[in-house]
Design brief:
With about 180 residues, the chain is an alpha+beta fold. It has 2 helices and 8 strands. The protein has one domain. The protein has a 5-stranded antiparallel sheet, covered by helices on one side. The N and C termini lie far apart (about 125 Å). About 20% of the residues are buried. The model has no long low-confidence stretch (mean pLDDT about 90).
C-alpha cells in the first residue's frame, strides 16, 4: 500500500512543476508574431485612411478653385493676368487670385461693392493649411472673336501623418464679353 501512495505523490509532483523554458519561449514567440501582424494591419489601415482623406482634400480643393475661377473669369468684363496673378472685374464684383510660390498657397479676394477694384496682393486663404499648390501657372490669350481664353495649371498636394496625395489639374475658361 505504501508503494501505491508514493507513485501517486510522484505523479502529482510532475503535474505541479509548471511550464518548461521551451514552452514559455514558444508562447512568447507566438504572441510576438500575433502582435507584429496586428500592428502591421493597423498601420496599413491607418495609412490607407490618411491617403484616402488626402485624395478627398485634393479633389475638393480642385473643385473649389475651379468653381471660383470659372465664375470670376466667365462673368468678367475685364481680365488681367500677370505674374501668376489673375484679376477680374465686372460692375459690382471684383476677384483676385494670386499664387505665393514660397508658401505654396493660393490666395484670393472677392469684393462686391459698386466701384470695386481687384486687389493687387490678395490675402484671403482659399484652401486649408494642409493643402499645397505647387507649380501654379496661369495664362491668358485674346481670341479672334473678341473673347479671352484663360488657362491655368497647378499641382495640388496634401500630406497627412501616414499618407499623402498629389496630382495635377488644368482648366481652360473662355470669356466672351457682351458689351452691347
Amino acid at each position: 500500500m505504501k508503494i501505491k501512495k508514493m507513485n501517486k505523490i510522484n505523479k502529482n509532483k510532475e503535474r505541479d512543476r509548471g511550464f518548461t523554458l521551451l514552452e514559455i519561449l514558444v508562447a512568447i514567440a507566438v504572441m510576438s508574431v500575433i502582435g507584429v501582424v496586428t500592428t502591421a494591419m493597423l498601420f496599413s489601415a491607418l495609412s490607407w485612411r490618411d491617403k484616402l482623406l488626402a485624395m478627398e482634400q485634393v479633389e475638393e480643393s480642385n473643385r473649389v478653385i475651379r468653381r471660383m475661377m470659372e465664375r470670376a473669369v466667365g462673368e468678367a468684363e475685364e481680365i488681367e493676368v500677370e505674374n501668376n496673378t489673375l484679376r477680374t472685374s465686372k460692375t459690382g464684383e471684383c476677384w483676385s487670385f494670386s499664387w505665393q510660390d514660397v508658401t505654396e498657397e493660393l490666395t484670393y479676394s472677392h469684393d462686391q461693392t459698386v466701384d470695386c477694384v481687384p486687389e493687387v496682393d490678395p490675402a484671403g486663404e482659399l484652401l486649408p493649411q494642409v493643402v499645397r499648390v505647387r507649380d501654379f501657372e496661369i495664362k491668358m490669350r485674346e481670341l479672334s472673336s473678341e473673347g479671352k481664353e484663360v488657362y491655368w495649371k497647378m499641382e495640388i498636394s496634401v500630406t497627412r501623418p501616414l499618407g499623402s496625395y498629389e496630382t495635377e489639374f488644368e482648366q481652360t475658361v473662355i470669356n466672351f464679353v457682351d458689351e452691347g
